[in-house]
Structure formats: C-alpha cells, structure tokens
Amino acid sequence: MTDWSIADAEKLYRVKRWGGGYFEIGENGNLQITPDPTNPNVRIDFKAILEEIKEEGIQMPIVVRFHDILRSQVVSLNKTFRRKMDEAGYKASYMGVYPIKVNQMREVVEEVVDAGEPFNFGLEAGSKAELLTVLAYNTNAESLTILNGYKDEEFMRLALMGRKMGRKIIVVIEKFSELLTLTKLSKQIGVEPLIGIRAKMFVKGKGRWEGSGGDKAKFGLSTSEIISAVNFLNENNMGHCLKLLHFHIGSQLTDIRAVKDAVTEGARIYSELHHLGAKLEYVDVGGGLGIDYDGSHSTSESSRNYTMEEYVGDIVYGMMELCDMEDVPHPILVSESGRALTAHHSCVVTEVVSEIKPNYQSFDTSPGEDDHLIVNNIRDLAQNLDRYPNSQEVYNDASDWKEQAINAFKLNVLSLGELAKVETLYWQILKQLDKRQLNVDVNADLMWELEEQLASQYLGNFSVFQSAADTWAIDQILPVVPLTRLNEKPTINCSLVDITCDSDGKIDNFIGDGEISKTIPMHPLKEDEQYYIGLFLTGAYQDVMGDMHNLFGRLNEVHIYSYDDDPEDFYIEEVVAGSSVSNVLSIMQYNPNAMAQDVKRMIDKCIANGQIKPREGVKWIDFYEDCLKGYTYLKTNSKGSLSVE
Ligand SMILES: *Cc1c(COP(=O)(O)O)cnc(C)c1O
Q1: Which of 125, 149, 386, 597 has the smallest number of CB atoms closer than 10 Å to its CB?
Q2: For position 119, what pLDDT does the model report?
Q3: Which residues does a 6 A CB cutoff place in the pocket of ligand 1?
C-alpha cells in the first residue's frame, strides 16, 4: 500500500476541513473522534464504537450522537461571544438561545440547556408545540425564551402563562395584528409581556435561504409598521414592555458580508428607536451561522467563507461601533444559532450491502452464423481497438452501435441473444477506453462520461428521505466517508443508492477534489467483512426532518459519551430503539394487532384444509408477528450481507 497514505485519504475526503476539530483520519486508517478539542487526550476510534454496537446486537442503520460535541459547540459559541466582548470592551452581555426547530429531540434540547446553564443560554420556539416544549424544558430562570413564528391566541396565553411563572419570555411580533392580541390578553390576564419586534430587513442573505430577508420576506414589520408599533404600545402605556429588536436574514449564510450588512442595518434601527424613546435592551441577530459542509471555505451553497470567531467578531464590533457613533447604550446581544450548534454532533452510520455494477457481465460474444451486421461491426471494433487511437471516436461509434442495436431489437430485427452480445461488447470497449492514458486537455468530456458510465452504485442500508432529506430536497452536500480502511487506496468509483423504491433515493453529489463530483472512490467490498460508511454533519435539520417514504422509519440511536478512564475513551450511555414496523404502520392508521390476527385466521384456515401442517403454521404466525415488531430496514447477516448464511 505504498501508493496510498493517510494524507491522500485526507485530501480525498477532506475530513479535517469539514470536521470542525472533532473528526480526523487516524494513522490506523479508522475515522477518529476528538469530542472535546480542548482535551485531545480523549480520542475515540470509530471502529471501537462499531464493534460495541455489533456486540450489543443493534441493527444498522444507526444514528450516532456524540453528546460531548454538542456540549462543546454550545460552550464554544458562548465563550467566543464573551471573549470578543471582553476584547472589544463591549458594555453588555451575550444571552443566546437555541432554536429547537433545528433539532427538537429531547436529548438534544436537554443537553443544550445543561451545557448552556453557566452562560444562561436559553431556547427559542417557533410553534405552539415547540412553545409547550420550551416552557417545560427551559428550566434556567435567568435565561431567555424567545418566541418567533405566527401566533394564535393560545400561543399568546401560553407565553403569558410563562410570564406568570416569572420567566423571561419574549414574544417577538411578526405582524402587526399580533400586537393587538397580545396587549388585549395581557390586560385580561393581568401580566405584562416582554415584547420583541422582528424587523423586515432590506439586506438579503446570500445563499439558499436568502428569501428570509428583503422586501418580500414572509416575516417581520416594515419600517413604518415598527414606528406604528412603538406608538401603539406608548398609547397603551406599554412602551416599557418593548425589549427586543429581532432580525433573521436566513440560514446557512455563505458570505460574511451579509452578516456585516445585517448588523449595520439592525444597529441603525435599534439606535433610531432609542432616539424615538423606545429604550430596547436586546438586539437579536437571529440564526444563519453556517457550516462548511463541503470543506471548501467558500461562498458555495454548502459552505461559508468565515469562521465562528469572525462571525461573532463582526457582530460584536459592528454593533459596538454603530452604537458608540449614535451615542446609545450597547444592547445585550442575542443570537439564535441552531445549525452551527448541532450539525457536527450526530452522524448516520450504515453498511454497504452490495455493489451494483454497470452492465458489463460477460456474455459469450463469439460470432454466430446469423449475427446481424451491427453485432459484427461492434465486435470488429472491440477486437481491433488498437487500430483506433482516437478514443472519442471509438466511444461515439460504440455508443452509436449500441443505440442502433436497441432500435433493431425493438423492430424484431435483432434477437435477444444478439442484443446481449452488443451490450457485452459495448461495456468491454468502455473498460478498454478507461484503461487508456487519456489526456485531460483533449478528452475531458470523455473522461467524465466514462467515469460516470463505469461507476458502480453502492447500495447502502438506509433511506435518503429519512436520514439525509436535504441531499434530495435542496442538493445539500453532506460528507460521506468510509469509517475504516482509510489507509487502503479506494479503487471503486461509485455513487451511493438507498433501499427505497425511488430513483431519487441516492446520493450523487460528493465533495470532490476542488469541485463537486458525481462519484466518490470507495473500497472494494469483501466477502467476510462489513463495509461501514458514515454520513456526517446530520445533527442539524436532517435528524428531525426525515419522512417515512416507503415506510422506512426512524433509526436506532446510540448515544456516546466520552470517558477518559475507559480504555476506549467512551461508553454508550443510551440506546434508543428506532421505529418498528408496527410503529410506522400505526401512524398510517393500520392496526398491527388486528393484522396479525387476520393473518392468523387465514393460516388457521390453511391448516384446517391441510394446505399447511399445524406446527409449520404456528411458526409462520410467529414469524409474521416478529417481523411486525422488527426494524424497518434490511436485516443483514453477521457479515453484513443479505445472503443466507
Ligand atoms: C431557523 C431559524 C433559526 C436557526 O437558524 P440557523 O441558521 O440554523 O442557526 C434562527 N432564528 C429563526 C427566526 C429561524 O427561523
């Protein structure tokens, strides 16, 4: 393996570039995790996790959650704000919130609240169900609870109930009429609300979610509405309840300039309001802190051209400079980063169950007596390839013969056997062409074409729609990396397909060497060894947005905590079982118990009329019931394959 090094693997899969300091390729060729970069002594080998998972009999695919990474990101964001504020001499504090829509899993919310406790880090909710959650889970009385999104009367009542409980709940007004409901209810109930106003911003974020800003944004008040809101509150003697200015110009902001512009615009509105007598205490800069999914450090849609440090610095300094210029107090800064806190902490692990090779199986192509001219022509080309140095021409001719053959077959001119010969010869020619030392400058298109046509498909035991929705919905790039054997040269170029019966169920956008690639090199599958791959950075949105296409349900989850005293530096704190077939059927209105009884009745009938023997019948009934209780994904044997052992 002299022609392959760990450095080559790193160059190919870019683990360090998207890994955020948490992931790295170990010298032993396994993916490794440093859950807390400030403590590099704790280093977990993914292979050790896989072995333990296998020992415990947990079925693939699984979500692996690294709680320490989540904690570390929460601490890191808070400390970065503190450090930048100290450095700048900022005269107010930072009180961030975590928007739970990004990942509402209870374990995630609990961990964020716990890790954020020393910083009074709070929660944000954008719907009634989320509000009910944060009321119960934001247990720190000092921290903020921010409420965004459209609200009905019940929503407002719940918020005011929180105020009664003495909580710092800020209702952010998204449209003017919400203010009328809120003031009316607060008078009725007899408790003062804390009010925020979301400003519709002129600046637009660059990237996929740029629609969150600009004139046509769905949320927020225009300049004139903001002034009306202030007047309305003053007229109702509630001017002092207005506490916060909020803006959010979109998620995954790719260009730092959008952040700077938004802060400037927001700071201007804040200071103008101050001059008008509205003494707001907080400015909430929303979410948008991006993740470098493709490791390119660029403004491509799956990346960002800045770091957390720069993002925080630009907010703190931008706000401070403008406030000083306008001679208004520095506001308490709030941010609503969700993606940046959660993306790294979880990944999806699955096994490749088989390789789907392109169509070059060997059919006997030796001449037959009645072979059609097309067959003879393409055979002649295949056998005398050396005489044709122009590779593009060979490819064109071969493709042409193949197409002609298919048409001739349809017209009953070519037999099925003849067509099989043409196909086999076609793939032989392509493989031969691929072996030629082609010159990029001359044959770029052809090389691309060959790479794509000859690529294999690795069949992964997972569903894109459940576990990587954004790769399908918005062409989001997620890093895909083999978890072991990274010290071996990966020689199979392939794309990744899932087990749904949907041709969209595939991943064919990968981090390439410099540009996005339709295929990714992986290692040849072995008969007697599982091949595990990881889909990384799935902790934000992907974890919770998936659907049950084809009735593939939620994944088994393994929660990992690091533990320095353990020989492997970790322990599995909890295993959360994924959906059973019964679970997903119940959601679709079926009654699995009744189904089992129906099947039992049918089998009993078969036993009665002698079609099935009684003992065998009982076994079939048990089997049906076991499968109902079982996992929705493929069940592989101990070697990770689908064949019968
Ligand atoms: C979605 C959302 C967020 C989270 O944005 P990220 O880019 O994931 O940090 C924050 N605030 C509001 C209002 C949102 O709608």
Answers
A1: 386
A2: 98
A3: 99, 101-102, 126, 148, 248, 251-252, 286-289, 336-340
